[in-house]
Amino acid sequence: MLDKVSLHCSSQHYMAFAHLLAVLFSLAVVRQSDAALTKRVACADGIHTATNEACCALFPVMDDIQANLFDGGECGEDVHESLRLTFHDAIGFSFTEGGGGADGSIIIFSDIETNFHANIGIDEIVEEQKPFIARHNITPGDFIQFAGAVGVSNCPGAPQLEFLLGRPPATAPSPDLLVPEPFDTVTSIIARFADAGFNSSEIIALLSSHTVAAADHVDPTIPGTPFDSTPFTFDTQIFVEVQLRGTLFPGTGGNQGEVESPLEGELRLQSDSSLARDSRTNCDWQSFVGEQVKMQTQFKAAMSKLAVLGQDVSQMVDCSEVIPVPPPPVTLEAFLPAGLDMNDIEQACATAAFPILTAQPGPVTSVAPVPPS
């Protein structure tokens, strides 16, 4: 009987040991497979490596634009404009009207597209980017999205955006009237984005870009006017400050699409103000206040979708690793500008109270313009 018990125990131990060996062998195979998948190649410059050799060509492009377009890696006016250009090129896509999306048509056919009313002022960054494209073996569609992703990486608090390489050159200009404008209604904005494949939550996520934006042509009398008080930091202040009480300008001249902000030197787009207060989008808008990680995550996801509109991603190479990791923000805390209190917030979301914020100390905030490039 003892011998049978011993034999049974030995058999159990052997089976357990054999199972353990099988598990360890499987893990080893998985690790070897992962290693094979992530094997890096040395780039010709002798400095960088990449998981795909095609991505090596992007390192000199990045060095060039960081030094000569973005002033050594600043989150300045040319970053703001390059990010704006990613949208104006890509949103030229419609399931009903056509358009090639993120294909570089706004540069290839700049004599046509920069004359669209919604693209007024975009010709400046288009002309700035053209020499970089000429110097490097890169298509305009790839360059626009690459420059936007690299530029955003200079802004503290921004997410590291994805970048896929492989957009063929555009063969036709985008149709007109596909780029939403600041004076459009919420209904028309939602409809335009839906026709490009975006829902209302993704619209608000994309508008996170306005935290590092300034206007030159909404009101040409006040160029470089930022949309929030921290235009060089990718933070949630845009979602706070657009919710401050303001007054819509009734005129249709230079002030068309503009809403008066209680902060001196700050401009608010009519479309932002409307989206922050409309029942279809106001809770999405409010949900980003003080939620830095949520804003980063959803902005990155929406930008990844925008950047490949109209493209065949199966023919593209993921070169996201080339995009630098942005620096962290100084603080993750949202705040009220100095001189204001919670009574200055215009509550809009019906299902959740606006977060309680503390005002910065000091006199009433005055926002300085963004210097030209």
UniProtKB/TrEMBL annotation:
It is an enzyme of class 1 (oxidoreductase). One of its GO terms (cellular component) is extracellular region. Its main location: secreted. PROSITE patterns: PEROXIDASE_1, PEROXIDASE_2, PEROXIDASE_4. Keywords: Calcium, Disulfide bond, Glycoprotein, Heme, Hydrogen peroxide, Iron, Metal-binding, Oxidoreductase, Peroxidase, Secreted, Signal. Residues 1-35 form the signal peptide. Residues 115-353 form the Plant heme peroxidase family profile domain. The active site is at residue 88. Its EC number is 1.11.1.-. It is found in: Secreted. InterPro entries: Ccp1-like (IPR044831), Haem_peroxidase (IPR002016), Haem_peroxidase_sf (IPR010255), Ligninase (IPR001621), Ligninase_C (IPR024589), Peroxidases_AS (IPR019794), Peroxidases_heam-ligand_BS (IPR019793). It comes from the Eukaryota. This is Peroxidase. It comes from Guyanagaster necrorhizus.
